[in-house]
């Protein structure tokens, strides 16, 4: 098979796309910034007209996704999602297999109507709480929960990659996809995926406690967190430099990198002292830090240990909470010190868990990332206040069943009407979503300010920036050329071979750059290949869209996997060990289902 040389526009498009993907995969630049650079490059090189280069921001797929963000946020704020999650979690029982089935099914059900990340985030605290109550390691539940949300995303139109593939079809003059297309094709994958997890996958899951899981019923920090070498008592004698100064003025933490967890004074303990608390002679400070740093305090007149004894010889009366940083947290990229976290929330971070490792020194200086698990000390009241802050997921909090009110009723009703209208095709999906978002604002279910905050602008810019690649693939003819190559390579063996090859290619790309980028790059080529081969383009588009949700092999393939890493104490290889079989089952089910559903 001879491949003719690329034309100049095709070559330029190929180079720009390759560089853009390279920047995204290598993490040299933020994905949304790399997408903007791709957009600019396509316009500057005249591969696209300025109007075509900017068309992604007005694309119906982007409008649909924006509306979906607002609808999801309204369902969360009014308590609809939490109420549904609570009812589903109540079915879990005490048997481990039943818990796996319930939380996996809960992830599937919620992800049919809200995005996967929201579904995972709202179910995560319930899964950890129920695991603790029944003495089951959270690691036995959280990967099934994550995979459940991903499987549910295959059976609904309202997943980002699925919306993008539907837009690819429309852009090339084909019928867009409907809810029914995904229910018919993705439903069997949901069923077989759950069966695999219950029979095989759950036996491959590690049995590990999360960072804070054993802190539910005990306050012995030394044995739980192996902090013997990090926990110190420091006595403030008469004449010490810090006597009469506030904690902030003493600069104990700033100069030595230690954290003052408590002050004992007259047989009373003041936990999480504020920066303006004054130190008095005779105070005993409970410090968290490395020995070398703590020893430096002797230079300002402090004495390590009480009565000259440096061993901490009793349990520490401090309450603990585990907090996970959510994917859309506004604090991402900032440190706890920059946030003045201790002053604002009255909680102290004693450890940070990231990528399977615990950090216990200078925790306040780490820029926060999605999925970070923080161990906090503080009162239950303060912990509950933190749980109400956007982006902080507090695990194992006391369960209070939400009571949906009038706003919840209107949010559920409006969402149901929007989904019905979009499913039957009375109006375009983008118009239905935007109208639903506006109706939710008018009904008082969400404010305009909260609606703007709910939109993940990074995702919007990423998609709008990379969508012009699809336009360029069509206008330059490169998409048709690549489609012809695929047709000659795979379609000769039948339409199922073409679908299988595109599905596997999509799964591979998804593990590296995520399903959104995979849909934007492979989608236009897949539709062109289907049209060139005379294969049903809707069937091919659905297969590729579902491949974008097969993010089972690596934690970085989807944010919902990252969210489970810390609370489940997972390692990178855990996802591959469990997810490989899940991927194979999905692939086999796809090959068996597609000929029946689409008459291939």
Automatic annotation (TrEMBL):
It is a multi-pass membrane protein. SUPFAM superfamilies: TrkA C-terminal domain-like (SSF116726). The chain crosses the membrane at residues 6-26, 33-49, 61-85, 97-121, 141-165, 408-428, 459-478, 490-510, 517-534, 540-563, 575-598. Keywords: Membrane, Repeat, Transmembrane, Transmembrane helix, Transport. One of its GO terms (cellular component) is plasma membrane. Residues 219-303, 307-392 form the RCK C-terminal domain. Pfam families: CitMHS (PF03600), TrkA_C (PF02080). GO terms for molecular function: monoatomic cation transmembrane transporter activity. It is found in: Membrane. Its main location: membrane. GO terms for biological process: potassium ion transport. This is TrkA-C domain protein. The lineage of its organism: Bacteria, Bacillati, Chloroflexota, Chloroflexia, Chloroflexales.
């Amino acid at each position: 098979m001879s491949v003719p040389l690329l034309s100049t526009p095709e070559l330029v498009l190929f180079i720009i796309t390759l560089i853009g993907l390279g920047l995204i995969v290598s993490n040299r630049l933020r994905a949304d910034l790399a997408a903007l650079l791709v957009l600019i490059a396509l316009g500057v090189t005249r591969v696209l007209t300025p109007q075509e280069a900017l068309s992604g921001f007005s694309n119906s797929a982007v409008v649909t996704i924006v509306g979906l963000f607002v609808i999801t946020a309204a369902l969360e704020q009014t308590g609809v999602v939490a109420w549904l999650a609570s009812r589903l979690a109540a079915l879990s029982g005490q048997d481990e297999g039943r818990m796996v089935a319930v939380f996996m099914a809960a992830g599937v059900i919620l992800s049919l109507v809200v995005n996967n990340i929201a579904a995972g985030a709202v179910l995560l605290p319930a899964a950890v709480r129920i695991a603790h109550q029944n003495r089951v390691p959270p690691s036995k539940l959280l990967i099934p929960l994550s995979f459940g949300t991903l499987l549910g995303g295959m059976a609904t139109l309202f997943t980002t990659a699925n919306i993008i593939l539907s837009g690819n079809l429309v852009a090339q003059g084909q019928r867009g996809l409907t809810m029914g297309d995904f229910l018919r094709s993705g439903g069997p994958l949901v069923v077989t995926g759950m069966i695999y997890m219950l029979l095989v996958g759950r036996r491959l899951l590690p049995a590990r406690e999360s960072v804070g899981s054993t802190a539910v019923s005990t306050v012995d920090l030394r044995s739980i967190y192996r902090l013997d070498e990090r926990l110190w008592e420091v006595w403030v004698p008469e004449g010490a430099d810090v006597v009469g100064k506030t904690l902030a003025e003493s600069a104990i933490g700033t100069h030595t990198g230690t954290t003052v967890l408590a002050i004992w004074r007259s047989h009373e303990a003041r936990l999480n002292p504020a920066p303006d608390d004054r130190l008095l002679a005779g105070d005993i400070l409970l410090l968290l830090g490395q020995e070398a740093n703590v020893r430096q305090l002797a230079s300002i007149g402090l004495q390590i240990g009480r009565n000259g004894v440096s061993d901490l010889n009793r349990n520490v009366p401090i309450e603990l909470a585990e907090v996970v940083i959510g994917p859309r947290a506004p604090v991402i990229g900032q440190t706890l010190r920059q946030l003045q976290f201790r002053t604002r929330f009255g909680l102290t971070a004693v450890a940070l868990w990231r990528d399977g490792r615990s950090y216990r020194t200078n925790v306040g200086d780490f820029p926060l990332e999605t999925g970070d698990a923080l161990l906090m000390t503080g009162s239950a009241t303060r912990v509950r206040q933190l749980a109400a802050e956007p982006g902080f997921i507090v695990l194992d909090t006391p369960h209070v069943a939400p009571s949906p009110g009038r706003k919840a009723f209107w949010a559920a009703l409006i969402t149901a009407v929007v989904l019905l209208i979009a499913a039957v095709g009375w109006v375009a999906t983008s118009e239905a979503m935007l109208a639903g978002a506006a109706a939710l604002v008018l009904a008082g279910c969400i404010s305009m300010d909260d609606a703007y905050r709910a939109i993940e602008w990074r995702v919007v810019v990423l998609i709008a920036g990379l969508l012009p690649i699809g336009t360029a693939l069509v206008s330059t003819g490169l998409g048709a050329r690549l489609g012809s190559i695929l047709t000659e390579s795979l379609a000769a063996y039948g339409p199922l071979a073409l679908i299988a090859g595109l599905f596997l290619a999509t799964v591979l790309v998804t593990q590296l750059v995520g399903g959104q980028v995979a849909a934007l790059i492979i989608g236009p080529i897949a539709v062109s290949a289907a049209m060139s081969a005379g294969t049903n383009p809707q069937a091919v588009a659905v297969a590729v869209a579902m491949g974008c949700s097969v993010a089972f092999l690596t934690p970085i393939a989807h944010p919902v996997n990252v969210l489970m890493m810390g609370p489940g104490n997972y390692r990178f290889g855990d996802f591959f060990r469990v997810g490989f079989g899940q991927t194979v089952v999905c692939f086999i089910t796809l090959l068996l289902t597609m000929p029946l559903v689409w008459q291939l």
